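Extended Data, panel c. Modelled sequence:
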Amino acid sequence: MPAEGKRVMGTGRSLPVMGGGRPAPFPEDGRGLGAAGRGLRETAGAALAAGDAAEPTGGAGVPQGGAAGPGGGAGFSRSGVPGGVWLVTDRRLLAEAGRLSEVAAAALEAGVAGVQLREKDLPARRLCALAEELALLVRKFRRRRGPTATEPVLVVNDRVDVALAAGADGVHLGSGSLPAGVVRALVPRGFLVGVSVHRVEELSAAAAAGADYAVFGTVFPSPSKKGVAPHGVQGLARACRAAALPVLAIGGMTAGRLAAVRAAGAHGVCVVSALMAAPDPRAAADALVMGWAAGAAAGAGGEGGAAAGEGGASLGRGSAGEGTLVRVRVNGEEMEVPDGLTVAGLLGFLRLPGEGVAVERNLEIVRRAEWELVTVAAGDSFEIVRAVGGG
């Protein structure tokens, strides 16, 4: 296989929106926001113009309370939360801090559903500049995707003022942030509000406060959460069954684990080090998006039942959710795919284009004429690359 062709495929591949369309982007001129939304944006802009150099402490400068605008109370909708892989940034993991936007671009090109800007140590002015850069990047990739594809979103961690001032699609709140109910009353209709939860019992409070989605973890052991006992796949499944809002899983996410995570009922996954610390972020993002797509056959969503157990999906043949699955390796990442697929069916399952693609199975090229004849078997190893120079 030519060395120059060794890149995981992913261009043009994306997941359908789960539960509806993306909310309308934040209007840059502030029209239609209501008094609370316009006031918050003006407050944020004034703070930034004054040269706010303080470290973020959970929404500094955000007015407490205020009349509910059109996005307050029962006016919000959870239908705009895109399902799939979300990138959570941490520039400290990068070899070069200036590459954060490059990692985000690579992830968006691969088809990630969302970007969460989580740079807690940045002062407001620098954070807002970075958020504006990422917002433009997200909008660019949003225009590239087709009408049935997932439209990516940008949320800013903790800082409601920065999220609004930068034109982000939402804000993500931690345990020390403003309460979700307060934020919901301040932001415009369609503005996403996410919350972090660590116990199943916290999910009902998040939903009642008006959160659009919850990030639940840690699911697997994670380098960023040393000493924290993971919930495992079964704990995630209990959370998804109990939740009245979409649940994104976080903690120790790798491509090989995503089928089991999706089978447990997760709406999506949040990934930090597997993307931010990856030597090749595009290849890592491609593998993660393919891993999430592979979970579609394992009974994703709803009452999805953690059939894979605590250790992830089982090896070889076995049943998980709907149908029988086999474990294979695709571009170096283990995943489960439906039993009985042909090579052509595998490409369709992974949502990869059939044109301009070369397939290698167990170190042997599979000719295009054989794609409908060769059946995928447990233990097979595939390399799927962009064809170089024909063939």
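The two ends are 11 Å apart (CA to CA). This feature is highlighted in the accompanying rendering.
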